[in-house]
Amino acid sequence: MSDDTVIKVMNIKKQFRNKVAVNDVSFDIKKGEIFGLLGPNGAGKTTILRMMTTLLRQDAGKVSLNGFDTLTQSRLARQQFSITGQTAAIDQDLTARENLMIFGKLNGLNRTAALSRATELLTDFDLTNSADQTLATFSGGMRRRLDLAISLIGKPTILFLDEPTTGLDPRTRMQMWHAIQKLVAGGSTVLLTTQYLEEADHLADRIALIDHGKMVAMGTPSELKKQVGGMQLRIEVADSQQFDQAQTIAQATLRLPVNVNDRILTVLLDPTSMSQVPHVLQQLQSSKIPISNFAIETPPLDDVFLKMTAGKN
């Protein structure tokens, strides 16, 4: 293992009776990297995560965390990481500060250090005003923020996040993103599973796409988008009353399907239609249709996900 490789997954396999859940999956994760693990429901993501965190023994292959084998050195491997799942593991009868203090002490911090770390995390997760209230008063989003804060109490070198922002409002999700990025800036390494593709696109340095237990693709978000091929035209119409007219112009000029979302038109371009894009803009201007955004860009990660898993479920 190279000095900057923190997690190494080598040819792991897992079968439940006659069903192969994970089939020969391999990847490395480097220090300070956010690595996204994506795939449809039932693709094998959770099984892979359970094997990596010693909760499940693989049938074949090897996983090492900071050089420690998860099968033969499981106790030492477990000391290398923290994990946050989809459900909170916090004491409902205690306050947020008390929960953080307890977990700080469990992570080997003395009372002063635990209090200091708790205060820092309460600030990071916008929980200061509620720090000394019992969790009965907390919303679901506040509980999720506290759960992630607890997983960060010991500044883990490896953090496994299993869909940490599921069900959260956009503001709370942004707070979680900021906290994750701050942890990584401090040298930690993160493996993230998420059902939000824009979250992986925003956070992950690299992404592994899993489908039916197999590795379908791996690379940076930009590299995966290039594998889909083509570029996307994005048109945002300023006046909703002229939206239908803009859609008609785009479709007639490019002769391609036009996707509609609110006041935004998107068209997945092919090589022959690229030369027609300036004509679309000219037609819109001639028709005096105000445009707030007109851009050619790489397609979103959603398109990568759908194309690479299409017809396989």
UniProtKB/TrEMBL annotation:
Protein name: ABC transporter, ATP-binding protein
Species whose genome carries this gene: Paucilactobacillus wasatchensis
GO MF annotation: an example: ATP binding
Biological-process GO terms, alphabetical: daunorubicin transport; doxorubicin transport
Domain ABC transporter stretches: 7-237
Gene Ontology cellular component annotations, sorted alphabetically: plasma membrane
Cell compartment(s), UniProt: Cell membrane
Membrane topology: Peripheral membrane protein
Keyword set, alphabetical order: ATP-binding, Cell membrane, Membrane, Nucleotide-binding, Translocase, Transport
